[in-house]
Design brief:
Helix content: 25-40%
Strand order of the largest sheet: 1-2-3-4-5
Largest sheet: 5 strands, antiparallel
Number of strands: 5
Shape: elongated
Order of helices and strands: HHEEEEEH
Number of helices: 3
Strand content: 35-45%
Radius of gyration: 19 Å
Distance between the termini: 48 Å
Length: about 140
Amino acid sequence: MINLLKIISLFIFFLFLIYVLIIYFFLNNINEDEIIFNLKNNQNINLTKNKETQIEIFPKINIIANYNFNNLKNNFIANNLNIKYTQSLFSTIGQLNLNTNNFIINNLSFNEIIINGKINFLRNYYLNNYDLNYLF
């Protein structure tokens, strides 16, 4: 009986380890520069990275990025745009938090904007061949 419990425990441990490794390799293979390039060419959006993006995997998936955002076509400018994505390892729904110190739309300026929402990043973006239209 004790040997059976040890075998089951080892099996569950290895399944968990494989799951964490798959998530680790997926998150480390996200090509941030390609996403920025696609946004610039397809959506006419210019992103400038202020800080290196931080990615943590355990105990939760955390992605933290900081950009300056310009969409000259629609006259949107966001300075110091902080993006934080958090998702539990065993959930498909995560939290997306956006905040900026200064947001300008057609010469109308807003200060301290905070947007909180839910996102299905792993399911929507990954399963639709990295198409940004399926991100939310």
